[in-house]
Amino acid sequence: MSVIEKFRTMEYGPAPEDPKESFLWLDRYGRRFGHFIAGRFEAPSEGRYFDSTDPSTGEKIADIAEGSAADVAAAVRAARAALPGWQRRSGHERARFLYALARQVQKHSRRLAVLETLDNGKPIRESRDIDIPLVARHFYHHAGWAQLLEPEFPGYQALGVVGQIIPWNFPLLMLAWKIAPALATGNTVVLKPAEFTPLTALAFAEICNEVGLPAGVVNIVTGDGSTGEALVKHPDVDKIAFTGSSEVGRAIRRATAPSHKRLSLELGGKSPFIVFEDADLDSAVEGLVDGIWFNQGQVCCAGSRLLVEESAAEKLLRKLQARMSTLRVGPPLDKAIDIGAIIARVQLERIDGLVKQGIAEGATCWQPEIVLPARGFYYKPTLLSNVHPTSIVAQQEIFGPVLAAMTFRTPREAVELANNTVYGLAASVWSESVNVALAAAEQVKAGVVWVNSTNLFDAACGFGGYRESGFGREGGREGILEYLEPAWFRSAPPVKPSGGNRNGLGQADVANPIAPIDRTVKLYIGGKQTRPDSGYSVPVYGLDGGLVGEAPLGNRKDIRNAVEAARKAAGWARSSAHLRAQILYYMAENLSGRGGEIAGRLAAAVGEKAAEDEVRLSVERLFSYAAWSDKFDGAVHSPPFRNISIAMNEPVGTVGVVCPEDRPLVGFFSLVLPLLCAGNTLVAVPSESYPLVAGDLYQLFESSDLPDGVVNLVTGRTSELTKVLAEHDDLDALWCYGDESLCAAAKALSAGNLKQVWSNEGRSIDFSDPQQGEGRWYLEHSHQVKNIWVPYGE
Ligand code: NAI
Asked: Alpha-carbon distance 754 to 268, whole Å?
């Protein structure tokens, strides 16, 4: 046989990683693990264990403690007990612990990588070269935040005890994403790993002891969804951070609604991988390999929807099929393997079921002729083409090695298709034209966009979603804020219960709708003063109990119209920051000019002195946010690759705003202005006690050139209108100021489209104090960060 023939027929020899060291480690624990509570491994209170298995063989690896509510409670107690001591330490001391964790992860990196591959089935090449190095990087980066916390976040404090629930796809990496920022900011933690993959979390527990981390700062309770549920419902937990499926994310949103628990959710995705005709197609093919076959496609930000320009489609798919035929699927401990095992039989069946449904809906299925191992859970890399944009395989997360391909003709159509799912986690855009690529990156609704690259992660660059992919960010400065709150906020007094109006709305006069009276305001929708759909206005009474006017009783239909008008005004986001500043300054000028007259009317509701104060403070607030409009800029990160990552502060979108009752003018402006200066469009419900303020507000908007539809005003009963706003699927966020029950209802009802809800938690905010009433805390909530990764070099 000639050398050439030999070369052509040459097969890869096996190149297995030796798992001996990891097995020895497992043996040290007798292959049976308890929960890690207060620095010790503790047997489960009910004595029950479950198996952790190797998905590449189906064989059992170890017994894992099944966490009961009592185990969760013990862990929360340990975290609470450790909190004061942990918080007394200086940022520098905490930084030293995080640094030590990073060093220790590096020291044990090979053992951790092998354990991860054994437990999860991912190729050792990935756990060794991607997962574990990123884990260490995360602890290093956050050691830095611990060191810099006080100067960088003055006036903020830790939330307390944090419950963290993670999935099985990147077990140790997700642990690092959760634990590193929590510890850096002075919180203590109870973490529940996924039931399929608890081993590296338990190995990390041992590392915590090795570096002398004080007992109780990190606690790990293993178990399934019911253990997670116990953690979510535990009353002494201050925040839940969750990564996993959207269904469970929704359940957690509802479960935490009645409490003050902060929540961040990193959920699913159906991320577009957009290839323009002028892309380097060979690079795009390699990008697809990383985009959808990395970790067997079990990646929340997998590039699972290929959108390719029609003129390049045939060529790209041909190249892709050729490349797919060279992918090696097999035992994940083999260093030459590209695709390892699927996590579990249930997931394998889910993937296969969805692929079959896709085929039934008209997709063409192509898989390479490769032989899968006889045992273990494997799935061939799969290409579905001719996929209809509404097909289940184009809409639903498959979480497996399956690519759904569609074509487009114009950049506009590409963006429309890209945004045509309920998700918004990530996107990848391929074009040799920087203009085309960045234009698409700007328009795609996703928290992360990779230009001519895919699946790049770094601790300095925030990661997280839009829409039903969840809210909150992990990594970067924005990730730190998920674990902090202003120090004054926790102890702020409760607001007076809403509806207990000192004055406020009376009942509609059913017999005599729209009674003629001097001061009757209207709704303000799409730049027009409109009558309410109900046809009713209600009397408004002043402080002295006398009738001061009539206000329209808005209902569901009015809110729907207002949301539609606000969405149509989305061009506001693309107007220049300078223009937005000019309009806010102009509003301040007009308010100042008409201040006496407006305060005169407002005095009937709040008293003379308070009315004057409100007008003066409102002018100041307008100046503040006009100033901020062109100054709350993003950042440019330099991750350790040949990339820059542009962290853009984007508006959240269309936002509902439920305004405070007792500060009709300055309360309204304090919530509305940060959103406006960020470029959001709004549907606002003015104070229920004094809705007549709407009349002054829309006159102000009209005389200040605010574009139609940017702010819409619907007056009426706050509790009814809040419910409609919370349930509305076209709102991206809801800011709700009210008593505890109103805030809880807003959060619970928002679970449908998982809109982010920011509330005062039933606490009173002193809007006359600029430290409480304005500034970065508001701006941080009125923006969300999109990271656009741009490569450079040859
Ligand atoms: P899952 O959402 O059920 O599990 C994630 C974590 O949440 C696990 O630790 C689990 O024990 C815990 N959990 C489950 N129910 C809970 C509850 N009611 N309260 C608190 N914690 C609970 O995800 P699963 O079943 O493992 O995977 C199902 C699908 O979810 C996948 O096919 C995939 O589409 C998606 N998924 C998305 C992930 C992502 O990173 N976005 C990660 C894992 C799954």
From this structure: 12
